[in-house]
Write a structure and sequence with these properties.
- The protein has about 260 residues and is an alpha/beta fold.
- Helices cover about 55% and strands about 20% of the residues.
- The strands form 3 sheets. It has a 6-stranded mixed beta sheet with strand order 6-3-7-10-8-9, sandwiched between helices. Strands 1-2 form a two-stranded antiparallel sheet. A two-stranded antiparallel sheet has the order 4-5.
- Strand 1 and strand 2 (about 25) form a beta hairpin.
- Helix 3 (about 110-125) crosses helix 8.
- Bound molecules: zinc ion.
- Zinc ion binds near residues 94, 101 and 162.
- Zinc ion (ZN) binds next to loops.
Length: about 260
């Protein structure tokens, strides 16, 4: 068969494929396998064309809209995650601003408490805890605001850091830990004292005390007196970076072991 015959034959087949009916053409059922193949190929081409066209339309219009929505939804998700970020521990550096606390010469309690609190924050954050500070600089914060801040955060525990003073006897020394009328607070105090003694820090017994920040906080809360500024030897320790780091490590371990115990880890 030459090319002309092939050409004629192809058009003839296409012609045979249709039958005239009342001025219109209708598809006739293919009678040979070749016409069936042409029909299938034609349908495939039409389908591919359709997919290509719709694909482009969706790429131009629909997909970017979906992408924008996705980005927007991710942004709102992270914003709400930030808002709902769970605070584990509230650290309260005692005094600040116009309230120096105990004073020995130029040494003020408010500076020691802030320094140890910042070290403690670092230690706890290294262990994956999220920490909220009632103050992170030399500023005045009312006691009621400290407790309110802790309550609003929904933290698992509250730890207030102070230094002690005992005028009558400058030899008195040691770390004290106070709680107020709740067993969880007492267990937190015990855990901190236990950890402190493991770090060779002189410790005293835990005590119940009606301090405002303990009384007005709704989570297990303790107030730690790091040591006596009235004891010259202990004051020297309290001012040293090394001892402050030891105090921070010991307190962090005590807090973490109490949290792990409560979580049943
Ligand atoms: Zn104090």
């Amino acid at each position: 068969m030459d090319s002309q015959d092939k050409h004629t034959s192809f058009f003839q087949k296409c012609k045979d494929f249709f039958v005239p009916y009342k001025g219109k053409r209708y598809v006739k059922r293919p009678t040979t396998w070749k016409t069936a193949v042409f029909a299938v190929l034609g349908i495939c081409l039409l389908a591919a064309g359709g997919v290509f066209l719709f694909g482009n339309v969706f790429k131009e219009n629909v997909v970017p809209v979906q992408k924008d929505l996705l980005e927007e939804s991710n942004t709102s998700a992270s914003l709400s995650a930030m808002k709902q970020e769970k605070i584990d521990i509230v650290l309260d550096a005692g005094h600040g601003g116009a309230q120096p606390g105990c004073v020995s010469g130029e040494m003020m309690e408010k500076d020691i408490t802030l320094s140890v609190t910042m070290r403690l924050k670092d230690q706890l954050e290294k262990e994956g805890m999220s920490v909220l500070l009632t103050r992170d600089s030399d500023e005045d914060v009312e006691l009621s605001d400290r407790a309110a801040m802790a309550n609003e955060s929904g933290a698992r525990c509250f730890v207030s850091i102070h230094c002690n003073w005992y005028e009558e006897d400058p030899t008195v020394s040691g770390l004290d830990c106070y709680y107020y009328q709740d067993e969880e607070g007492m267990l937190l105090a015990e855990s901190i004292l236990y950890s402190a003694s493991n770090h060779s820090i002189v410790t005293r017994e835990s005590k119940e005390e009606n301090f405002e920040v303990l009384r007005d906080t709704t989570m297990p809360a303790v107030l730690i007196e790091l040591g006596f500024m009235s004891n010259p030897e202990e004051l020297e320790n309290l001012l040293s970076e090394e001892y402050q780091e030891t105090l921070a490590s010991a307190i962090a371990e005590g807090i973490l072991s109490k949290i792990e115990e409560s979580a049943g880890v």
